[in-house]
Amino acid sequence: MEQELRNKVKEAAREYYKEVYGSKKVFNYIPPSGKLLGEEELMNMIDASLDMWLTAGRFNKEFETKFANYLGVKYALSTNSGSSANLLALSALTSYKLGDRQLKKGDEVISVAAGFPTTINPIIQNGLIPVFIDCEIGTYNIDADKIEVAISPKTKAIFLAHTLGNSYDLDKIMQLAQKYNLWVIEDSCDALGGEYKGKKIGTIGHIGTFSFYPAHHLTMGEGGAVVTNDSQLYKIIMSFRDWGRDCCCPPGKDGICGKRFSQQLGNLPYGYDHKYTYSHLGYNLKITDWQAALGCSQIDKLDLFLEQRRKNAQMLNEKLSDLTSFLILPQVNEGVKPSWFGYLISVKPNAPFTKQEMVEFLEKNGVGTRQLFAGNILRQPCFVENDVKLRINNSEIISSGDLTEEHYKLLPNTDFIMNNTFWVGTFPALGEAEITRILDTIHQFIKERAGVLL
Fold first, then answer.
1. Would you name the residues annotated as active-site residues?
2. In whole angstroms, how far apart are CA 67 and each of 47, 82, 261, 359, 385?
3. Which of 19-33, 73-87, 96-110, 178-192 has the lowest average pLDDT?
4. Residues 353, 450: contact at Cβ < 8 Å?
5. 311, exposed or middle or buried, with CB in 10 Å at 0-12, 13-18, 19+?
6. Does one domain contain both 156 and 226?
7. Does residue 328 share a domain with residue 250?
8. 280, 298, 316 - which closes a domain
9. b (16+ CB within 10 A) / e for 244-265
10. Does residue 38 fall inside a structural domain?
11. HSE-up of 1 (CA within 13 Å, CB side)?
């Protein structure tokens, strides 16, 4: 009877989906990012709702298994956002359980200033010092050749995002990590499904992080994941995610380790309930089973999503090639297969128009654009108005409140990105018609502003 009723609910929902969402969306305004949901996602969400379990349960277990298998890693842990995934990844490296490799307050982490804030924020929130290196123009990733000179005895980790699905030079990064005994966190929130020399991005460093916000390659509404092949890191990340708890029993399960009342940890009495023993200053960053149900359906479509993103980017590449006198198009290093979260365009300094003028024209004519997130985060109010200790390249430690134009000049490409770079969409709900509209609008703008030069 229960299954029969469940099927009736789902059948009614199918009819609702076909009536309300069944036809292809027509975009009056072409957004730079977005989700693509189908009937299967709705069915899974209804199943999860009818379970009435609410917190992480059977769908979460299924998703974590599917996600780990897709990437080819041993362990995947879901979390409530990609930003939380970054916080968990970095916080895990501060665990006392890592012994000599534990990150301590005042240790340094290599990163870049051109990117999303929550790649940087966990460094600061954990009392560590971010060390900013300049980026390459074209890939918009860290200039890996400039990292080694910035490494000091206090440098303990490298924490970088793969910019919009385009991988940085992981060979150089991992060689430096091995040489100097550094941790590597791959922020892959914008790069799910991308590859570096045949390996999935996010699986080459010690920890990889992912986001499932609606703008990303698959969505749970809100959500993220942390992955690793290291069993010790897996347990530490789980602890930080689950209130700092030492116990690894999932919600609603007790005594899996067989030692629930037979241990003595910290200064607690012997036998204190392991489910209420805390080894880290953690959080509660789990997802609901409803979100996981959505992810279980989305991951089955991921390869199709990636195929469309790559097709859209290829079309943009081919049809904008006649404008390279004015624009810098994305560059891909050897061995990299991007997953194209978006398509980055830079306006050349000698162009007869500015990025701002081009972006305003596109937006006015129905083509959505985005900046490369913070541009130069050192110029953002969160740095200017606070006392954040940092280094730039191989400089001495300074306070963000004392930054001057001379300091910004140490990151010339980062400022170029802030002033000259933006991106348009490649997400899978966009087809040839939408990409053609983007291309036509770009060509129209340049013809109007530089027609005599074409």
1. 216
2. 20, 15, 33, 36, 40
3. 19-33
4. yes
5. middle
6. yes
7. no
8. 298
9. bbbbeebeeeeeeeeebeebee
10. no
11. 0
Strands 199-200 and 195-196: antiparallel
C-alpha span between 393 and 408 (Å, rounded): 11
Tell whether 186 and 57 lie within a shared domain: yes
Q: Same structural domain for residues 350 and 292?
A: no
Structural domains of the chain, count: 2
**Which tokens in the block code for residue 390?**
């940092």
Six-digit token string for 18: 């076909």
Residues of the domain holding 72: 43-298
- Encode pLDDT of 264-290 as tens digits: 989 999 999 998 999 999 999 999 999
129 in Cβ contact with 60 (< 8 Å): no
Q: What is the pLDDT of residue 181?
A: 98
Integer Cα distance of 311 and 152 in angstroms:
43
* Predicted pLDDT at 170: 98
Question: Rounded to whole angstroms, how far apart are CA atoms 417 and 26?
Answer: 32
User: How do residues 182-203 score in pLDDT, each as one tens digit?
Assistant: 999 999 999 999 999 999 999 9
pLDDT of 3-58, one tens digit each?
A: 999 999 999 999 999 999 988 888 999 999 999 999 999 999 999 999 999 899 99
The residue behind tokens 């953002």 is 380
pLDDT of residue 454: 56
Measured CA angle at 450 (ends 446, 454), to 5 deg: 90
